[in-house]
Structure to design on (562 residues):
């Protein structure tokens, strides 16, 4: 290695508003680069909901009749019904993938690079959440385009009005994943999260079938669906896609976003979180 | 800080007395780059650090010696605020790590024991990501990345994915990354573990040159005694406690030994110290 580099003395840490913006942009840029470089993730993110739409929805089309229910003003095909649920599913899986990569980063040590930044830890975590939300929104729009090409009717205004729901829903699901990642110690344990969190939450929701149908078949499952925050993310997306408003869904998603984000920040806080109580936890 | 021994006054006096030596000459006008004051840390019932105190003088090279499990990595996690300091205090360039974490972390350049490069990103992108985490604007970051890559002799690998590098090259990139934001205090946790002799020598020579020419302070954790040179400050950490601290010759003399290996064995009772080049 050559002789020591001369210090310029001009580059110092800048915790100004511009510095914060640079930091957040850097976190988002890194998340985007990783997503683009891992082509398998990119492809599976689109193929997964398409499989549901093209195969599952086609199979159920004649079995499940969806009657008129808000926000729909007429009878709809099952493929139309299932699109908002699949949008939420895209965000749900990406949020979980992002949290999985946090566990991976922690195991590999690269999480430390983020956590020793001079910016406040809450800001770093929110930046990471924002990054995963933005990427999941891109995936959602890519899926909406494919669904539209497949023949699903998406209202023109819905392309715009769904955006706030995708932002809030993506943030909630990402924050939930981040909170889970703080509890998962090893990468192998993430299979448990898939089995005990992701699948039950996805199936016990209004993503695949209307709640009134669930209520008719199983009142207990119906109650579980009502207690499931994912149900409200799906409904918020559904209503916004049709330029309608569901105040209950908005309140639940907003409330859960705050609770999950605060929980994740607390869990990764070196002073109060669980990280400092076990050796190697911050690795 | 008054002690070249690298400790707070009461701790240094105690440790040197315990080791049978005298405190180093005082230089009260210059505060230390790093001050660890009576720090303890536990994982549940297990105590990883017990009342640890040490200082790293500005512009000095301090070797933190300890066997595996001595508490070095826990101490690094506290210095870098991965863990919170619950008992005691850690000050970096005058900034309390618990109370002013941003200012303290801005002064720190860190190389962790585990490899922390993002393997899916290019070398250059790894550096730019680090720069962004320190709020460095793009143009300055790009110029700085080119300069530090040139510095570590890997400018031609800038566009390669990190996973294409050898272990020694990854370490050099981590050192380049650490220098991106021009830190004044470098902390390196066993940076040469797993490297071949040539890579090991290149890395330690480089960090020593940084200390000499830039005046940055260095805390170098290792269990390899041959990485210590005459004139270095040495802190011996064993089972979570500081057993001795001071300039190398003082620590050796205080232990009643003729060389560092014997001194380390005397202090820690580690029989393997005499075997091979690790304690």
């Amino acid at each position: 290695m050559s002789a020591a580099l001369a210090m310029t003395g001009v580059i110092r840490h800048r915790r100004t508003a511009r510095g914060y913006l640079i930091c957040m942009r850097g976190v988002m840029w890194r998340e985007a680069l990783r997503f683009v470089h891992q082509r398998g993730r990119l492809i599976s993110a689109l193929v997964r909901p398409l499989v549901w739409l093209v195969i599952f929805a086609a199979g159920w089309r004649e079995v499940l009749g969806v009657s008129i229910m808000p926000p729909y003003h007429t009878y709809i095909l099952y493929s139309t019904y299932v699109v908002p649920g699949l949008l939420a599913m895209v965000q749900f899986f990406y949020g979980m993938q992002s949290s999985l990569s946090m566990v991976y980063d922690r195991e590999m040590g690269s999480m430390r690079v983020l956590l020793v930044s001079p910016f406040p830890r809450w800001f770093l975590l929110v930046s990471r959440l924002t990054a995963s939300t933005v990427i999941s929104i891109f995936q959602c729009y890519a899926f909406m385009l494919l669904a539209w090409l497949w023949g699903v009717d998406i209202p023109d205004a819905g392309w715009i009005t769904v955006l706030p729901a995708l932002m809030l829903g993506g943030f909630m699901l990402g924050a939930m994943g981040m909170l889970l990642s703080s509890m998962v110690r090893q990468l192998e344990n993430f299979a448990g999260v898939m089995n005990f969190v992701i699948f039950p939450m996805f199936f016990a929701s209004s993503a695949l079938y209307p709640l009134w149908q669930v209520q008719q078949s199983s009142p207990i499952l119906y109650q579980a669906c009502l207690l499931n925050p994912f149900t409200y993310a799906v409904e918020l997306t559904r209503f916004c896609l049709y330029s309608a408003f569901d105040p209950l869904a908005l309140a639940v998603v907003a409330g859960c976003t705050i609770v999950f984000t605060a929980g994740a920040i607390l869990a990764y806080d070196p002073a109060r979180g669980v990280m400092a109580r076990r050796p190697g936890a911050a690795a | 800080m008054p002690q070249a021994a690298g400790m707070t006054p009461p701790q240094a006096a105690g440790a040197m007395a315990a080791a049978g030596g005298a405190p180093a000459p005082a230089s009260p006008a210059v505060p230390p780059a790093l001050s660890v004051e009576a720090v303890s840390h536990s994982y549940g019932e297990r105590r990883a650090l017990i009342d640890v105190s040490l200082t790293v003088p500005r512009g000095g090279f301090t070797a933190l010696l300890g066997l595996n499990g001595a508490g070095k990595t826990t101490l690094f996690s506290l210095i870098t605020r991965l863990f919170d300091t619950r008992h005691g205090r850690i000050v970096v360039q005058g900034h309390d790590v618990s109370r002013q974490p941003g200012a303290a972390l801005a002064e720190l350049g860190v190389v962790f024991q585990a490899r922390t490069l993002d393997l899916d990103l290019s070398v250059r992108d790894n550096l730019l990501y680090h720069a962004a985490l320190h709020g460095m604007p793009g143009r300055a970051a790009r110029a700085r990345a080119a300069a530090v890559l040139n510095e570590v002799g890997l400018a031609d690998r800038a566009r390669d994915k990190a996973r294409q590098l050898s272990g020694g090259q990854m370490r050099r990139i981590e050192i380049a990354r650490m220098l991106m934001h021009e830190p004044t205090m470098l902390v390196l946790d066993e940076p040469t573990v797993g490297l071949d002799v040539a890579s090991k020598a290149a890395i330690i020579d480089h960090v020593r040159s940084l200390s000499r020419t830039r005046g940055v302070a260095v805390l170098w954790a290792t269990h390899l005694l041959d990485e210590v040179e005459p004139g270095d400050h040495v802190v011996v950490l064993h089972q979570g406690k500081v057993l001795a601290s001071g300039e190398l010759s003082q620590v050796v003399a205080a232990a009643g030994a003729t060389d560092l290996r014997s001194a380390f064995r005397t202090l820690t009772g580690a029989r393997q110290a005499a075997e091979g080049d690790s304690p």
User: Anything to note?
Assistant: Chain B touches chain A through 65 residues (CB under 8 Å). Residues 1-26, 271-279 of chain B have pLDDT under 50 and may be disordered. DSSP finds nine helices and ten strands in chain B.
